[in-house]
Amino acid sequence: MTEEVLCSIQDGIATLTLNRPAKRNALNKTSIASLATHFTRFEQRQDVRVVVIRGAGKAFCAGRDLQELHQQQTDGRSSQSDILSLFRQIETSPYPTIAMINGDAFAGGCELAVHCDLRIAAEEARFGMPLARLGFMVPFTLTSKLVEIIGPAFTRQFLFTARPIGAKRAYEIGLVHQVVPRAELEETTYTMARDIATNAPLALRGIKASILRATSLREQIAHEDLDTLFYRTLQSADAREGIRAWMEKRLPVFRGE
Question: Is the pTM of this model over 0.85?
């Protein structure tokens, strides 16, 4: 059976490769659990100083596996707690993380990239949060993360329109740190990773901890009501219609219910 997340460690650089190219590396329960397990194991190792996340094939990550999510909706057990927990685990990992974005980073794939510390994109890469087109509310944790990175004005435009943006525009608004030709993406990413890996491990941990502390005020904002609304949208008629429309390749008909 093909591993859905590949892991390699060399010269202090751990590489996690999303390995579902036929599904554009969409995240399912297995790949989410695998990523979480790898990050947990990294904390027990002394030979990891930086983590690179990348996707096999032409896409970085197309988001949550909508076929799996549709089945969960049908069964009445739709939940995003596992993926939200993973993003939090990646963000708070003691190691600097780099998203190497070779292609589309949509929905959960965009969230995955945003929760990494650094993002390097190929010129062909696109970023999108089309949740409103699927009838979903964007989780508070992602909304606050986007506001932190690109500010409230661009967060409004990005989320309200639900339209994808190209790598150049993503760089202009501060969503990514660097844009390079696809042929140079791997070299550029691993040059940065090596630069980080040669630095003192305790210093790197301390720097990341300081940055997390500086941005920790958003963790103190009460958002239980927004979480309730978010999970309500997951089971809404509009959300079921949004996923059905996507699977049937047609425009959704939303009714606000």
Answer: yes
